[in-house]
Design brief:
- With about 500 residues, this protein is an alpha/beta fold.
- The chain has 13 helices and 17 strands.
- The longest helix has about 70 residues.
Length: about 500
């Protein structure tokens, strides 16, 4: 019986260009001479270094610890010597440098010895499993890079676990190849997460343009269910439409539930995890392997042989380009991190591959070519028609452009998932998402300044109260000394009278 699916509003149908990179098996990328590991490869606070320059480190060794609840540790991705801890370019749309640990490889790729005997995940308490996931440095590999240990401990009970293998962005095929090559890791990891989260059912979602991945998962699921027939697990193919892989959109398609504005999936009883993240959790819990590498799609018309590589985290993207570029693209290629819809142009090719780097999209476009200039908005409403969150992109654009931050919040600016559908259909070629990103940044900065001012006001009030208290204490002591002197004088006078 065919499973009922729902739909989400808006969205667009895009050419996938998946066939460029999904026809070849995943291969390991050579370990580079220098590894550059940013301390902020995750959402939240950057990690704190635990090593010093000149120290020798081993592959898999913890070199930076989490700095807060929402943070993640960093491990070495090869053996070698720490040669610097300094600001370096990173793969971020801001173009700002970030503190990184730089390691010169010794070519040995020597692993650190495990700290304790291998555990049996099926017999280990959920709290300890979550700690091991945190200690392994695992974050969401679908793009959000949110620390997985935090996500897997929702504050409300959940009944549904969704494994997201939709991968709707054009060009990107790293999840597709992972599901084809390691379906057992995905499904056994998902089975373990069912126990960990307490969910009753698990749905593994795959877009219907990935038939090989769906078949591989269904075959592996039959084996998993032979081991545990009580598990409610199912592979579900969903219609191909961008952005069906968005967390809230996929929850809507599979369950019919709507995550509220500003809300999170656990509020509707769902936890949603990317397939790459689930495979990394499997490796951490069954093999004791921290997150030191990931699959990266390297594709585009500037690449000689597009395919997927297993890359060590910290691999300089410049070295990847030297390895894959067509000869005619050298010197003129433009590189995007991620796909054409939600990705961004790489500011500096010396930036390293990080936990959130799922794709290097290389365009052989000459450097002198410039995108068409934006024209005035004609108020056609096409942007609103394709918005998958039911926002009013045109109003958000006007308010963002005018700096009317309060009004952008009134129009639910932070519900925007920055999918790019509105900009894709805009006949005026207005870079709408860039305006929304700018407005979000300004709102966050205004809130940061307000918090800072409130803290300064509170500190000043505390200081004034402390000064007044000290004054009162001094005055009380002065009066006490005066009374003591008067009492002494009175006693002395009484003694003289008696004499």
């Amino acid at each position: 019986m065919k499973r009922r699916l729902w739909s989400f509003p808006g969205g667009v149908r895009l050419p996938g260009f998946k066939e460029l990179s999904n026809r070849e098996a995943i291969v390991p990328f050579p370990v580079p001479r220098f590894i550059v590991l940013p301390l902020g490869q995750h959402a939240g606070q950057p990690a704190e270094p635990l090593v010093d320059v000149g120290e020798r480190v081993l592959c898999g060794q913890l070199i930076a610890r989490p700095a807060a609840l929402v943070s993640a540790p960093v491990h070495t991705s090869t053996s070698g010597t720490v040669v610097a801890i300094e600001e370096r370019p990173v793969a971020h749309r801001s173009g700002l440098p970030q503190r990184c640990i730089v390691i010169e490889s010794d070519g040995l790729d020597e692993w650190i010895a495990p700290d304790d005997p291998q555990l049996d995940p099926w017999r280990t308490p959920a709290k300890e499993l979550v700690e091991r996931i945190r200690d392994a440095g695992i974050v969401g590999l679908g793009g959000a890079v949110f620390p997985s240990a935090v996500k897997l401990t929702p504050s409300k009970p959940v009944d549904t676990l969704i494994i997201n293998g939709v991968e709707c962005e054009p060009y990107i095929t790293c999840d597709d190849l992972l599901m084809r090559s390691r379906p057992e890791a995905v499904l056994r990891g998902a089975r373990l997460l069912l126990e960990l989260t307490g969910a009753r059912r698990c749905r593994v979602a795959v877009e219907d343009n990935k038939p090989e991945a769906a078949r591989a998962l269904e075959q592996a699921l039959a084996e998993v269910l032979r081991e545990d027939g009580a598990a409610d697990m199912e592979v579900v193919q969903v219609p191909t439409r961008f952005p069906a892989g968005g967390e809230k959109q996929l929850i809507r398609v599979l369950t019919g539930r709507e995550v509220p504005s500003g809300g999170l999936p656990f509020q509707v009883g769902v936890v949603c995890v990317n397939v790459g993240t689930v495979a990394a959790i499997h490796d951490a819990l069954f093999q004791g392997r921290p997150l030191i590498s990931r699959i990266v799609t390297v594709t585009g018309d500037g690449v000689a042989a597009p395919r997927n590589y297993e890359m060590r985290l910290g691999t300089p993207i410049r070295e990847v380009l030297d390895h894959v570029l067509k000869s005619e693209a050298r010197g003129s290629a433009r590189v995007h991190i991620g796909g054409p819809m939600m990705g961004f142009e790489l500011p500096d090719a010396h930036a390293p591959v990080a936990k959130g780097t799922n794709c290097l999209l290389v365009r052989a476009q000459p450097a002198e070519t410039r995108p068409a200039e934006a024209m005035p908005c004609i108020r056609c409403g096409a942007c609103a028609d394709v918005c998958p969150v039911r926002l009013m992109p045109q109003q958000l654009y006007w308010h963002s452009r005018a700096g009317e931050l309060d009004k952008t919040r009134e129009h639910h600016l932070f519900d925007c998932i920055e999918c790019g559908c509105c900009a894709h259909v805009c006949p005026s070629r207005i870079p709408l998402v860039q305006y929304y990103q700018f407005a979000k940044h300004e709102v966050r900065e205004a809130e940061r300044r307000a918090r800072k001012a409130e803290m300064a006001r509170a500190r000043n009030e505390q200081r004034q109260a402390r000064i007044e208290r000290q004054k009162a204490e001094k005055e009380a002591k002065r009066r006490g000394r005066g009374r003591a002197k008067r009492d002494e004088g009175a006693e002395a006078g009484g003694d003289e009278a008696a004499a």
